[in-house]
Design goal:
Number of strands of chain B: 2
CATH class of the largest domain in chain A: Mainly Alpha
CATH superfamily of the largest domain in chain A: MetI-like
Strand order of the largest sheet of chain B: 1-2
Order of helices and strands of chain A: HEHEEHHHHHEHHHHHHHHHHHHHH
Shape of chain B: flat
Order of helices and strands of chain B: HEEHHHHHHHHHHH
Structural class of chain B: mainly alpha
Number of strands of chain A: 4
CATH architecture of the largest domain in chain A: Orthogonal Bundle
Radius of gyration of chain A: 36 Å
Strand content of chain A: 5-15%
CATH architecture of one domain in chain B: Orthogonal Bundle
Oligomer: heterodimer
CATH superfamily of one domain in chain B: MetI-like
CATH topology of one domain in chain B: MetI-like fold
Number of domains of chain A: 3
Strand content of chain B: under 5%
Strand order of the largest sheet of chain A: 2-3-1-4
Distance between the termini of chain B: 37 Å
Helix content of chain B: over 70%
Distance between the termini of chain A: 56 Å
CATH topology of the largest domain in chain A: MetI-like fold
Number of helices of chain B: 12
Largest sheet of chain B: 2 strands, antiparallel
C-alpha cells in the first residue's frame, strides 16, 4: 500500500486540495461579507395613514431631500415604516416613519488596512494561510514524483509548519466573525451613547475611512449612531475551506494523523495553560501602570493602559515601598543565614554520623515540617511579646528560620547523602578536622543543593504574610507583603499602587525561583519525597 | 576514653543549634497554645486560672462554628482534590518532549513563587464587577455583551477563593509528580508498547503505581498547606458576610485579634493543631512503610 508511488500520489492530491481550498478562500473573501446600513435622514409623521393628504405632504418633502442626496452622488434608498395601533377606545392610529438609508456592502479584502480590530485578525489569518501554502510547497518539492519515504528533516519541518499555520488560521476564522459582530457593535454603541474620550476619535476616524471613504467628516458621530450591520454568513464558509486546507496539510505531514492531532492538542493545552498562568501577571503589569482614574473606570476598554504611568513607581517609593523591600530582604536574608547555619551541621550529623536518637530526631523533623505557623499564631504572638521580639525584624528572621528548618535539613541531608564520604575521609587522613573537611570538601561539592535550599528558604520567608501581619505594628518594620496592604483599606483600594508595589515584590523572587527550577524536581525528591 | 566520649557527644553538639531554634520557636508556641486553651483568658490577653474544657465548649457553641468547620472541609477537599488531579495531568503533559518545554516549566513555577497575598489581590481585582479585568477582557474579545457580576453571592465568592487556591497549589503538585515521572524507567513503556498496551493500560498499570509515592507526599503536604492557607480568604472576602466564607485559620485570627474572644480562639487553634497532627501521623506511617520497602 505504502509504495513510493502511492505516497507521491497522495502528496500530489493533498497539495492540489490545499491549493484549491486556498484559492476558494480567497474568492470567498472577495464576496460581500458585511452589509452596513446607515440612516442619513429620518422623518416621523404621527396620525398619518398611507395615502392620505398628510402622507402625501410629508412624502414630497422627504423625496426632495432624497433628490438632494442623489445629486451629491450617494446611493441612497427611501424606506417607509408604518406602525398601526388600536387604542383603548377602539380607534386605530397610524404612524409613518420615513428614512433615507445608505446601504453598502463590504467584502473581506476591504477590511484590510481599515485599522479596525477585525482587520488585524483577518490579516493574521491571510498571512497564516499564505505562509502555510508556501511551506507546503517547499515541503513537498521532490516528493511529488518518487520515493519519499524518508523525508529529510527540513521537509518535515516545512510540512509541520504548514499544518500548524493552517490550524492557527482555522481558529482565527471565528475570531474574525466575533470581532466584527460583537466587538464592533459594542464599540459603536458605547462610543455614540457615551462621551468617552479615550480612543473615540481614532475609532471614528477609522470607521469614517472604512465606511464613507473619509467623506463623513464632522457628522460621523450621527451617521454611526444610525448604523446597523449584518453578517451575510459568507465568513462562515471560510471555515470549511480552511478546514480542507488543514486536512490536506495533515495528509502531507507523513505519519499518523492521530499522532499529529494529539501533538497539536498538547501544544494547544500548554499554550492555554501558560496564558492562563500568565494572566494574573499581565493584569498586575497593566494595572500597575494605569492611572488611578482608569483602574476604576467601568468603561475602560483597552487591553493596555492608554498611557503608561511610570510615575506610579515614584508614588509608591515615596510611600515607603523601598523601606519595605529592604525589610523583606533583611528578614528573608537573615532567616536564610540562620536556617543554613543551624541546618548544615544538623544535616551533616544526620548524614554522616551514627548516634542514638537519630530516628527520633528524623521523625521529629518530618512532623515539624507539618506545623505551619498559622495555626500557632496565638502562641507565637505570646512568645514573641514575652521575648520582646514582637514588632522587630529579628523576631521575624528567627520565626521564619525556625519554621523552614525542617525543610532545610531535609534538602541538605538529601544532598549530603548523595555525595560519597570518601573525599572527606581522605582529607581527614591528610590532617583536616571534621569542621575543616566539612567546609573545604563537602560544602563546595554540595553547592547546588545548598543553593537550592538557600533560595527555597529565602522565597518562603520573602512571601510570608500571616505572622508578619500579626507581629509587626510599626510601619517602618513592615516587610513588603504586609506593606502593600496599606494600599487597600476597607473603603478604597488603590489598585494601581497596589499592583505596582506587587510587581516590585514579585520580580526578584520569580527570578530566583526560575534559577532553581531545574533543581526543583531533584530537590523535592531529595527532601520531601524520599523522606 | 575521652575521645570515645567526645565521639558520642559530638553529634548532639552538631544538632544543638537546630534543636534549640526549633524548640524555642516551634515547640514553645505549641505549649503556650495548649496552656492557654485550658486557662481563662481575658479580652486583654491576661491569663487566669485553669478552667478545664470550658474554652472548647465555648468554641463549639459559637454560632459560626459549624459553618466554619464545613467551609474548612470543603476548602481542603476541593483545593487538594482538584489541584492534585489537574497537577497530575499537567505534569503528564510537561513530561512529554516538545519545543518550549523549558519555558512552559518556568512559567508553571510562577504561581508558586508569588506571595499568596499578591495572587489573591490580583484575582480580587480581576473578578470585580464594575471595573474588573475579566469583564474588560471578555467585553473586548466580544465574548460577552455586558459586564457579568462574577461575585453575585457569597457561595460564588467562596468558589472563586477555592479556584485561586487551586491555581496556586497546582505548581507544587505538578513538580512533585514530575519528579516522580522522571524517575520512571522508559524501558517499562517500551516493553508495554511491544505487548500492545493502550494509553490507558500504561497510565493505570505503570504511571500511577510508580508515581503514587510522590503523589501521596504531595497530597499530605498539600492538605497541611491548604488547611493553613490564610491570605487568600483574608484578602478576598475577610470571611464576610458574617463568617460565611471563613475557614478555621481565618476565623481564629478574626476571633483572637478582632473580636478578642481569646479563649475560644486558642481552643480552635488546638483543634486545628490536632487535625494537623493526625495528618502528620498518617504521613509518618506512610513514610516509615516506604523506608521499610526500600
Amino acid at each position: 500500500m505504502n509504495t513510493p508511488e502511492s505516497i507521491a500520489k497522495k502528496n500530489r492530491a493533498a497539495l492540489a486540495l490545499l491549493l484549491v481550498a486556498f484559492v476558494l478562500a480567497g474568492i470567498l473573501l472577495s464576496l460581500p461579507t458585511y452589509t452596513f446600513t446607515s440612516s442619513l435622514y429620518t422623518k416621523k409623521s404621527a396620525n398619518t395613514f398611507v395615502g392620505d393628504e398628510k402622507y402625501q405632504e410629508v412624502r414630497t418633502e422627504v423625496e426632495q431631500v432624497l433628490e438632494q442626496y442623489r445629486q451629491d452622488g450617494l446611493s441612497v434608498e427611501l424606506r417607509e415604516n408604518v406602525t398601526e395601533r388600536t387604542n383603548s377606545k377602539g380607534k386605530t392610529t397610524s404612524m409613518v416613519a420615513f428614512s433615507i438609508d445608505q446601504e453598502f456592502t463590504k467584502n473581506g479584502w476591504s477590511f484590510l488596512g481599515s485599522g479596525l480590530p477585525s482587520a488585524w485578525v483577518l490579516t493574521g489569518m491571510i498571512v497564516c494561510l499564505a505562509m502555510a501554502v508556501a511551506c507546503a510547497l517547499a515541503g513537498t518539492l521532490g516528493s511529488m514524483r518518487d520515493a519519499c519515504r524518508d523525508l529529510d528533516g527540513r521537509a518535515i519541518a516545512f510540512r509541520s509548519a504548514a499544518m500548524y499555520l493552517t490550524l492557527i488560521a482555522l481558529v482565527l476564522v471565528p475570531v474574525f466573525f466575533m470581532t466584527n459582530t460583537y466587538a464592533l457593535s459594542r464599540r459603536v454603541g458605547l462610543y455614540t451613547a457615551e462621551t468617552i474620550t479615550a480612543g473615540k476619535d481614532a475609532f471614528f476616524a477609522q470607521m469614517d475611512n472604512f465606511l464613507f471613504d473619509g467623506q463623513a467628516g464632522e457628522s460621523i458621530g450621527d451617521m454611526l449612531a444610525g448604523l446597523s450591520f449584518k453578517n451575510t454568513g459568507l465568513t462562515w464558509l471560510m471555515l470549511p475551506c480552511v478546514a480542507a486546507m488543514l486536512i490536506a496539510a495533515i495528509q502531507l505531514r507523513r505519519g499518523a494523523i492521530t499522532h499529529t492531532l494529539v501533538r497539536g492538542l498538547m501544544y494547544a493545552f500548554v499554550i492555554v495553560l501558560c496564558l492562563f498562568i500568565l494572566y494574573p501577571y499581565y493584569v498586575m503589569l497593566v494595572t500597575g501602570f494605569r492611572s488611578s482614574a482608569e483602574t476604576n473606570d467601568m468603561y475602560f476598554l483597552h487591553i493596555f493602559p492608554t498611557e503608561w504611568q511610570f510615575s506610579n513607581l515614584k508614588g509608591i517609593i515615596d510611600r515607603g515601598v523601598l523601606r519595605y523591600l529592604l525589610n523583606s530582604l533583611l528578614i528573608a536574608g537573615g532567616a536564610t543565614v540562620i536556617a543554613l547555619l543551624c541546618g548544615i551541621p544538623a544535616a551533616y550529623a544526620m548524614a554522616r554520623m551514627k548516634f542514638k536518637g537519630k530516628n527520633v530526631f528524623l521523625g521529629f523533623v518530618i512532623v515539624s515540617q507539618m506545623f505551619s505557623p498559622v495555626v500557632l499564631l496565638i502562641g507565637i504572638a505570646q512568645l514573641m511579646s514575652a521575648l520582646h521580639l514582637n514588632d522587630s525584624i529579628l523576631g521575624l528572621m528567627l520565626i521564619n528560620a525556625a519554621f523552614n528548618q525542617a525543610f532545610a535539613i531535609w534538602l541538605l541531608r538529601g544532598t549530603f547523602v548523595s555525595i560519597s564520604p570518601e573525599m572527606e575521609q581522605a582529607s581527614r587522613i591528610d590532617g583536616c578536622t571534621v569542621m575543616g573537611s566539612l567546609i573545604r570538601v563537602l560544602l563546595p561539592m554540595a553547592a547546588p543543593g545548598i543553593v537550592t535550599t538557600l533560595i527555597f528558604v529565602f522565597i518562603n520567608a520573602w512571601n510570608e504574610y500571616t505572622i508578619s501581619t500579626v507581629l509587626i505594628s510599626t510601619a517602618a518594620n513592615r516587610p513588603i507583603t504586609v506593606g502593600i496592604t496599606q494600599f487597600s483599606s476597607f473603603n478604597m483600594i488603590e489598585w494601581h499602587n497596589l499592583f505596582a508595589a506587587s510587581l516590585l515584590a514579585t520580580i526578584p523572587v520569580v527570578i530566583l525561583f526560575m534559577c532553581i527550577e531545574k533543581h526543583l524536581t531533584s530537590g523535592l525528591t531529595a527532601g520531601g519525597v524520599k523522606g | 576514653m575521652n575521645k570515645k566520649l567526645q565521639r558520642k557527644i559530638m553529634p548532639y553538639i552538631w544538632l544543638l543549634p537546630s534543636i534549640a531554634l526549633m524548640a524555642i520557636f516551634v515547640i514553645f508556641p505549641i505549649m503556650i497554645v495548649f496552656k492557654l486553651s485550658v486557662s481563662e483568658v481575658s479580652k486583654a490577653g491576661i491569663v487566669g486560672g485553669f478552667v478545664g474544657l470550658k474554652n472548647f465548649k465555648d468554641a463549639i457553641a459559637l454560632p459560626a462554628f459549624k459553618t466554619v468547620m464545613l467551609n474548612t472541609l470543603y476548602w481542603v477537599i476541593s483545593v487538594v482534590g482538584l489541584s492534585t488531579v489537574l497537577g497530575f495531568i499537567i505534569a503528564m503533559v510537561l513530561n512529554q518532549k516538545f519545543h518550549g518545554r523549558k519555558i512552559a516549566r518556568a512559567i508553571l513555577v510562577l504561581p508558586w513563587a508569588t506571595s499568596l497575598v499578591i495572587q489573591a489581590s490580583v484575582w480580587n481585582y480581576i473578578i470585580k464587577y464594575e471595573y474588573g479585568n475579566l469583564n474588560n477582557i471578555l467585553l473586548n474579545l466580544g465574548i460577552i455583551k455586558e459586564a457579568i457580576n462574577w461575585r453575585a453571592s457569597y457561595q460564588i465568592e467562596f468558589i472563586w477563593e477555592c479556584g485561586v487556591g487551586i491555581f496556586v497549589t497546582i505548581p507544587f503538585v505538578a513538580f512533585c509528580v514530575l519528579s516522580g515521572l522522571q524517575s520512571i524507567d522508559n524501558s517499562l513503556y517500551e516493553a508495554a508498547d511491544i505487548d500492545g498496551a493502550t494509553f490507558w493500560d500504561k497510565l493505570w498499570r505503570i504511571t500511577v503505581p510508580l508515581v503514587k509515592p510522590s503523589l501521596t507526599v504531595s497530597t499530605v503536604l498539600n492538605i497541611i498547606y491548604v488547611f493553613n492557607s490564610f491570605p487568600i480568604i483574608y484578602t478576598m472576602t475577610k470571611g464576610a458576610p458574617s463568617n460565611k466564607t471563613d475557614t478555621l485559620v481565618t476565623y481564629l485570627y478574626m476571633l483572637n485579634f478582632y473580636d478578642r474572644q481569646k479563649g475560644p480562639a486558642t481552643a480552635l487553634s488546638v483543634i486545628g493543631f490536632l487535625v494537623l497532627c493526625l495528618c502528620a501521623g498518617i504521613y509518618m506511617v506512610g513514610v516509615m512503610r516506604k523506608e521499610e520497602d526500600l
